[in-house]
Amino acid sequence: MQIAKVNLQMLGGITMASSVVARAVSGFVRRRDRAATEGRTTRVRAGRPRLAALCIATLAVTATTAIAACEPYPGIPIPPPTQSQPGPPGIKLFVSPTTGPAPLKVGLTAVASGGTGTLTFRFDFGDGTVVGPQSGAQATHLYTTVGTFHLTGTVTDSAGRSASETHSVTVSVPTPHISASATTAQIGQGVTLTATGAVAPASDYTWNATNPNGLSFRVDDTTTPTYFANPALAGVWTFSVDITDAAGAYRPSNKIQVTFTAPTSTPAS
């Protein structure tokens, strides 16, 4: 904003110039009326150009004087124009996936806008895990427990201003599942069975089998998710596992079949 003063003398000149124009116009009107009464119009017409020139000159002087009448006060600095400051930061979170069985690996990317200076990011995954503050706008996390978690991302600028956004991540109970290192093996070679789908902490794996004669029984209890099956009876065996973990006791898996064949006999020489 420019601080200005009004020059009273110059304003007086503006007033005087305006009065001159007013008197000139008033005199012209009186002469015109008197000439019209006496039947004379020649001199009146001749006076019009002079009156117009007087009005134009007076208006030019008035405008110049008005501009000069408003000048900055001498010795008072004019402050520079105010520069607008960037607004506070904003943040948008992109999270994937937002649902799935445990263990669930989640990745996120934060997109920031606005703010001043260097931006830092902090990610709270809602299960006690916090990443940052850091300059990177990406992070990953593995959810190992079941539940709904509120993941919050926060961006902060150099001025200490911040913005946050929260997303929900739902981790469901996985279904126990077993797989075999082979579906066909000879007696004596054995097959490794591996269980997945346990919710930490898993305390027990109960392995079950049904032999070729249709007899079902428990073959082992382990605290690890693997079992080495090496029966002595040839035929088709069916295996499954019951997992006791944080999601419950004896949660059953799928069933898998493995065919065990008799060893090939070596002919006598």
Report how far the terminal alpha carbons are from each other. 114 Å
Unreliable segments of 5+ consecutive residues: 1-6
**Proportion of residues in β-strands:** 35-45%
| Overall tally of structural domains | 3
Q: CATH homologous superfamily name of the largest domain?
A: Immunoglobulins
How many β strands by DSSP?
A: 19
What Rg is obtained from the alpha carbons, in whole angstroms?
A: 48 Å
Mean pLDDT: 82
Helix content: 10-25%
Q: Can you identify the CATH class of the largest domain?
A: Mainly Beta
Which fold name fills CATH's third level, the topology of the largest domain?
Immunoglobulin-like
Q: Strand pairing plus helix content: what structural class? A: alpha+beta
Would you identify the CATH architecture of the largest domain? Sandwich
Biggest sheet descriptor: 6 strands, mixed
Give a short synopsis of this structure.
This protein folds into three domains: 4-72; 90-172, Immunoglobulins (Immunoglobulin-like, Sandwich), CATH 2.60.40; 177-261, Immunoglobulins (Immunoglobulin-like, Sandwich). It has two helices and 19 strands.
Keywords:
269 residues; alpha+beta; Immunoglobulin-like; 3 domains; 6-stranded mixed sheet; 19 strands; disordered N terminus
